[in-house]
Amino acid sequence: MLRSYVVSGLRLLANIECAKQKIRLIIAGSQVPEDQCHADNTLEWLLRLEPDASEALQLAALAHDIDRAIERIKVRRADFDNYDAFKAAHARNSAEILRPILTACGVERNIVEEACRLVEFHEVGGDPGSDLLKDADSISYFDVNLPLYFQREGWDETKRRSRWGYRRLTPRAQEIVKHIDHEDKELSRLLQEVIHESIS
């Protein structure tokens, strides 16, 4: 009985590891420079916020933006008048891409369902798991995405995107972002303006 339990546990771990490797491999092909770093950094922040995060949450953290890595099927901002509608479509598409990856690796169905649900709601939250993922994703944006986003998009667009991202954080996550320090003085000034304007 014990041996069968151990074998079952090892199989689960192997299947989860298979899925993580496939997710990372797909994201490595993204044309967005920060995507690969952001995926792993979101997972790191998730585990800082919740060290006992479930396997489903960990998979969702890695894969939440996977749609951006596949040019031919990714959701494009230019196709939407409304930023929130774009983000919702991106989240749904990422969940649809994730499902067959997890299934092909033999991940248990309940973990597949929960990981895909979390990815689908990672932009808006609404329950403890998706709220946690939303926070980890948003903190990671300010931690590792911001410099590259700023370099590519410039002051006005980065400030707009950052204001949107900061306002959706929980108070706990806002406190964490307040202490993120970038060496670039212009970037630090932008972040301080975003924080000040969001609380005033």
Q: How many distinct folded domains?
A: 1
Indicate the CATH class: Mainly Alpha
Cα gyration radius (Å): 17 Å
Give the number of helices: 8
Name the CATH architecture. Answer: Orthogonal Bundle
Account of the protein in words:
With 200 residues, the chain is mostly helical. It has a single domain, classed as Hypothetical protein af1432, CATH 1.10.3210. It contains 8 helices and no strands. The protein has helices spanning 2-27, 35-49, 55-63, 83-104, 109-120, 128-167, 171-178, 185-199. Helix 1 packs across helix 4 (83-104). The N and C termini lie far apart (61 Å). The model has no long low-confidence stretch (mean pLDDT 94).
List keywords for this structure.
200 residues, mainly alpha, Hypothetical protein af1432, 8 helices, 74% helix, globular
Summarize the structure.
The protein has eight helices and no strands. It has 200 residues and is mainly α.
Summarize the helices and strands and which ones pair or pack.
Elements: H1 2-27, H2 35-49, H3 55-63, H4 83-104, H5 109-120, H6 128-167, H7 171-178, H8 185-199
Helix pairs in contact: 1-3, 1-4, 2-3, 2-6, 3-5, 4-5, 6-7, 6-8
